[in-house]
Specification:
Blueprint: H1 25-30, H2 39-84, H3 100-104, H4 110-120, H5 123-134
C-alpha cells in the first residue's frame, strides 16, 4: 500500500550505534568485500608469495637430489652383493636312481631291466645314453 499524498511518511530513524558508521562497512566486516590494498601492501604480499614459491621449489629440488642419492646407494649395494655372492656348490648327479620297486623285484629279462632304468632317468640322461650308443 502506498501512503496517500495527504499523510506524511514516517521519517527514517537510524540506530545510535550506526550513526557514525560508513554504509559499506557492513560488507567489509562480514567478508563480502575486501578493502583495497595500498601499493606497499601489495608489494609485501607479492614478495611473500614469491619467497614461498621459491622455498617450495628449493625443497622439491633437494628432495629429488636426495632420492637420486638413495638410488645410487641402492645400486652400489646391489652391485657389491652381486660381486660378493658365492656361487652354489655343484651337486653330484645320479645317473641311475634306484627305487624300492627296482630293488625288490628282479627283472624277467634284460629288456625289463632297461625299461625300469629308463623310467627312473631324466629326459636329458636318456638323450645322452642314446647318443653314446650311436657313437
Amino acid at each position: 500500500m502506498e501512503p496517500s499524498a495527504g499523510t506524511p511518511a514516517s521519517p527514517r530513524r537510524t540506530r545510535p550505534g550506526n550513526s557514525e558508521k560508513h554504509p559499506a562497512e557492513v560488507l567489509f566486516t562480514t567478508g563480502v568485500m575486501q578493502k583495497r590494498r595500498t601499493k606497499a601492501e601489495k608489494a609485501a604480499d607479492d614478495k611473500r608469495l614469491k619467497d614461498a614459491k621459491a622455498a617450495k621449489e628449493e625443497a622439491a629440488k633437494q628432495g629429488i637430489e636426495r632420492l637420486a642419492l638413495m638410488e645410487m646407494e641402492a645400486e652400489a649395494k646391489a652391485n657389491d652383493a652381486k660381486a660378493s655372492k658365492s656361487k652354489p656348490r655343484p651337486r653330484p648327479q645320479k645317473w641311475l636312481k634306484k627305487t624300492i620297486d627296482v630293488i625288490d623285484k628282479e627283472p624277467v629279462s634284460i629288456y625289463h631291466w632297461i625299461n625300469d632304468i629308463k623310467l627312473t632317468m631324466s629326459w636329458t640322461e636318456q638323450r645322452r645314453t642314446e647318443q653314446r650308443r650311436f657313437i
